[in-house]
Specification:
Length: 433
């Protein structure tokens, strides 16, 4: 039963759907999907076109906006919006350390999670579209991994789309995970250098924390083992518009003096555990590299393997040589499944996914080359999360796609930029700009 309620300027309705776990077996097992419908209060009774929002990740539920925050206010001027919790996320049938044992052992869990990639998400969208729109095509807005899903949508079910709007999410059509991370580490190094140029005092602060972690075993209040590699992964913050500032504020009060000597403060540890824990989004860690699998090559912990090619990221060497510590980010490593109590029970499942060799292709270059759906994409110059060169190559491969390349925003431009990013994409898709 649908339930509607109000927030400032918006009427929201909870929507629930049932879809096949495996769309090739429609009579088999099913899972539940949740979505939040949003419409402007003064247009609630009108027949409006639909915009489907696909969140980044993988593994995150759709944004929980209050009122008309970020891009939603602009969307509500023209659309009725469906904020979908992709399979396994949010209020959809969950996939985490508590629920996955219901599937059986690690092998069964890995087989289950192999169905949580962009291809299955697109088929979910097509399964629920007739119930939502009455069969009419809808516009999709894909942020980051949501843009990967939108590109897969254009490849397999373009008849379901009135338009596709992509922000920071044009994937490499044939890029293996190794290609992704080999391009990523130099980009991350540039982001760290820019952070230290902005906040030069953080060079010494980060080095002192790394030195402490190399010499001490630190367990955070939630049971997370804070290793130096885990500390370095806080560089994930540098991909957001305000991330450098938030990292600086985190580092400035890391230590307190105690009877036992200098220790990491409770306040610092509390903030760090909230940033590092995967308890709320374990799918990000489990299937992050799997989103790049498209052939018989395993991903095989690509980010960890490729990192070995970039010796400058070794923390112990940086501390010993007195060079600036390099942060990392937007990568998943096997040690995370040892450090994070939310991931520890899933280590063997993750190993099986990393070894998998039967991934299906996610994109159809021939169909994209013949595309007739209006498509517009914001490509953020030197985006830390998605390689700009890969994105622009894909933009050239999709017929009719119009790009907006900008260095005004980081990867979170559609959130940080308020209505401006969506407004620009709509204008491009409608040939109004």
């Amino acid at each position: 039963m649908s339930l509607s309620y109000r927030q400032p300027g918006v009427v929201l309705t909870d929507r629930f759907f049932t879809v096949p776990l495996d769309h090739d077996d429609p009579a088999g097992e099913t899972i539940d999907l949740y979505a939040r419908e949003a419409v402007a209060s003064d247009r609630a009774g009108q027949d409006l076109p639909w915009l489907l929002y696909l969140q980044g990740g993988p593994g995150f539920g759709a944004n929980r906006f209050v009122g008309r925050q970020a891009w939603l206010g602009r969307a509500l001027e023209d659309y009725r919006v469906l904020l979908l919790d992709q399979r396994g996320t949010g209020r959809s049938t969950p996939a985490n350390r508590q629920t996955l044992p219901l599937r059986g052992g690690p092998a069964e869990q890995a087989d289950y999670l192999a169905r949580f990639r962009a291809d299955s998400i697109v088929r979910d969208c097509e399964a629920i579209r007739p119930q939502v729109t009455g069969g009419a095509p809808w516009t999709v807005l894909g942020q980051s991994f949501g843009g990967f899903c939108a590109t897969a949508y254009l490849s397999t079910h373009p008849e379901g789309l009135a338009a596709a709007l992509i922000t920071g999410g044009l994937p490499g059509l044939d890029a293996h995970a190794d290609d992704v991370y080999r391009a990523a580490y130099p980009r991350i190094e540039r982001k760290v250098a820019a952070h230290y140029a902005r906040y030069p005092m953080d060079v010494e602060r980060a080095r002192r924390i790394a030195e402490h972690l190399l010499g001490h075993e630190v367990t955070l209040p939630n049971g997370y083992r804070l290793t130096v590699e885990a500390f370095q992964s806080l560089g994930l913050m540098l991909g957001a518009g305000d991330g450098s500032h938030r990292l600086h504020l985190l580092l400035e009060d890391a230590f307190v003096r105690t009877p036992a000597g200098r220790e990491l403060s409770d306040a610092f540890q509390e903030q760090v555990q909230s940033l590092l824990s995967y308890a709320g989004h374990p799918l990000y860690a489990l299937v992050h590299e799997a989103i790049y699998g498209q052939d018989e090559r395993p991903t095989a912990w690509s980010a960890e393997r490729v990192r070995a090619e970039f010796a400058q990221f070794d923390a112990a060497t940086a501390v010993a040589d007195g060079t600036p510590l390099l942060f990392t980010g937007e990568s998943v490593h096997p040690w995370m499944f040892d450090c994070d109590p939310a991931l520890r029970p899933l280590r063997e499942t993750a190993e099986l996914l990393a070894a998998r060799t039967d991934w299906r292709p996610l994109y159809d270059p021939a169909r994209l080359a013949a595309n007739e759906v209006p498509v517009a994409a914001a490509v953020y110059h030197d985006d830390m999360y998605v390689d700009t060169a890969h994105s622009l190559a894909t933009a050239r491969a999709i017929r009719g796609l119009r790009t907006w390349v900008t260095d005004e925003f980081e990867h979170d431009g559609v959130r940080a930029g308020g209505p401006r990013v969506l407004d620009r994409l709509l204008a491009l898709a409608r040939d109004e700009a």
